[in-house]
Design brief:
five-stranded antiparallel β-sheet; alpha+beta; 5 helices; SH3 type barrels
Length: 360
């Protein structure tokens, strides 16, 4: 009986030799074989395929894991709300990240049986914005003031939510030392305003801008319309290199640098220039929480309640754009953009109420 000619061993140096016997009992010359293990580096896509699945990250831009991890999330109690939160749906490639941390003690973690189109667990996060000290601070930079003089073209307040382009025709000094600026508008009319009610007509420098800055933005659809607001986000990979501004009527909008104008002589507290109300309270809390603002996470097609004209109405998410969602209200088919941390959102209002109760 013949035997196998060689037995291989998984070693780089080990060699095994075995004689081969012929049918007549004699043996042939000894044959030598050497087993060799060859190491081949797998391509990156094969390595990624072998890794276990991890939760999806909301922001699709490339960034470090630590900069996008949520440090707070909340699941609402089982009630009669129309829908739940869910991870938002982005069309760009989504980068895997670490598992979400468990809910804080103040957040009930009971299962929610409400049905919704997303079928995912609702969540509120506090996501870190910015990657350097300039992006994560909301302190006014210590820079010399730009000169304001007669003959300058400026943007000046004509009504609380409406500013117009005009020229400074005179600078007056009041008895208490305050300066007043007489502006003649391009359209028509004149106005005597304070320094915090005029803005430079030119584009500001990046080093002059900070979260919380008092700004005026030009309407993208009408170059003659200008709105006052508070700068809420600086350009980063998380917002596709845009500025987020909250107009004084609570409407959020992403704009590029050419649409921004810096107020000439802002107040020590820029929020004092905003009318008292829910938006002012929201901005105060937003700047206090920065750079970790609370954001809800929704998915396209999800329905929930949001405030419209002082009443909670059912709306559906049509677009998710970084910190904003575009919704359409079912009753009127009215469309608008809402910030994902807005107090108009029913889930955010309930979350803030729970948070306040816990802090008492």
């Amino acid at each position: 009986m013949s035997e196998s000619s060689c037995v291989s061993v998984a070693s780089m140096d080990a060699t095994v030799c075995k004689k081969v016997f012929l049918e007549n009992g004699s043996h042939s010359l000894g044959l030598m074989k050497k087993a060799v293990v060859v190491l081949t580096r797998l391509p990156e896509f094969k390595i990624s395929a072998l890794r276990p699945p991890t939760p999806q990250q909301f922001y699709s831009e490339d960034e470090s894991l630590s900069s996008s991890d949520s440090d707070m999330q909340w699941e609402p109690e089982d009630d009669s709300s129309d829908s739940d939160f869910s991870l938002s749906n982005k069309q760009k490639a989504i980068k895997p990240t670490k598992s979400d941390p468990p809910p804080p003690p103040s957040a009930p973690s009971s299962s929610n049986n409400n049905s919704n189109k997303s079928g995912m667990t609702p969540v509120i996060i506090s996501s870190a914005f910015g990657h350097c000290s300039h992006e994560t601070t909301n302190v006014r930079p210590n820079l010399p003031e730009e000169e304001v003089k007669v003959g300058m073209m400026v943007l000046a307040r004509k009504r609380p939510i409406k500013w117009q382009r005009g020229k400074i025709t005179e600078i007056l000094t009041k008895e208490d030392g305050r300066l007043k600026y007489k502006v003649s508008f391009e359209d028509k009319g004149k106005s005597l305003v304070s320094g915090h009610h005029i803005a430079f007509d030119h584009t500001p420098k990046l080093e002059q801008l900070y979260v919380g800055a008092r700004v005026v933005i030009r309407c993208q659809d009408n170059k003659f319309r200008f709105f006052p607001g508070i700068l809420a986000e600086l350009p980063s990979r998380k917002n596709r290199l845009r500025f987020l501004v909250f107009i004084d009527d609570h409407m959020p909008v992403y704009v590029g640098l050419p649409l921004l104008h810096l107020v000439c002589r802002p107040l020590e507290d820029n929020l004092e220039d905003i009318p008292d109300g829910s938006h002012k309270c929201f901005m105060k809390q937003y700047l206090k929480d920065w750079p970790y603002p609370h954001l809800t996470q929704y998915k396209v097609g999800q329905s929930f309640n949001a405030e419209l004209n002082g009443v909670q109405e059912i709306c559906e998410v049509q677009v998710v754009d970084c910190s904003l969602i575009q919704v359409v209200f079912q009753s009127t088919q009215h469309k608008e953009w809402i910030h994902r941390g807005s107090i108009r959102l029913e889930h955010m209002t309930r979350f803030l109420e729970m948070k306040e109760c816990v802090q008492r």
